[in-house]
């Protein structure tokens, strides 16, 4: 067909041979309006459906429309045996179901077969003690180490330190950090604020205000001064990793400049991971008592979000305030991130400490 269905980079993930004209038209309508989904959601849909399509092709089964839900169930079982956890398998199930829904189709017995299988796999993981992987905490102690090591003569050092500080101050997701614009910055009473718009849980243009710390507010204008010649709209510029120089922005008469690109989430991941390795190397040169406490795994793009949440809760801030600071809709993620330091989960311990204090004073 001349027009790819559900196209990403003009690669189709849907074979139209077995679809009616109505179902093809439904998919073309979506393909013309695919921007309604986030780019990462589209990529996820493309990747997971393609994997299922390959599985079906190896067994001479038509993936769309899928006539038998047990085919998808067998695929999920196989992926589980390969090491995929229930959380990933849910994404596979969602993607295959989504592509059917977009075409105006349904998978027969999806709820009774696929949902049941996912529950069985999840229960097996619970019995085996399989833990959900969560980003490790990048806390204030780690941030202080980074700030102390700042090299003001290195543009790369300034950008990376600023990135870590803004992620910590704002409990930013890595995608939010990548897509910050310079015009989202405001100076109020000597300190800077950033208006976070179009976030994962808030698609409005009103956004949420993030108040930057004194250190971050002092570092920000220094960075902006050094990147002023770039003229790009994104706050965090692409910098050559070896030379530490700004990547040249090709001039354009179009506004915003179509050649201006945000840093990638991979760049954010690398900045956090490299920080973990730097602190690890630092610890190796010191005695055990002088070590900076580090998690076993390297930091990731979500680590500042986790670490700042834990630091706030440890300092006595209410969970609801942390929820607002992190732009969550419910307290669930706050409780998940901070369960190791949150005193409300240590009720009996706190009760016993009170009793022992009273006993010792009598």
Helix content: 40-55%
Distance between the termini: 86 Å
CATH superfamily placement of the domain at 151-274? Intergrase catalytic core
Class by helix and strand content?
A: mainly alpha
Mean pLDDT score:
87
Strand content: under 5%
CATH class of the domain at 151-274: Mainly Alpha
GO biological process, one term: DNA integration
GO molecular function: DNA binding
Protein name: Tyrosine-type recombinase/integrase
Keywords: DNA recombination, DNA-binding
Description:
The protein has 14 helices and three strands. It is globular. About 50% of the residues lie in helices and about 5% in strands. The chain has a three-stranded antiparallel sheet with strand order 1-2-3, covered by helices on one side. By secondary structure, the chain is mainly α.
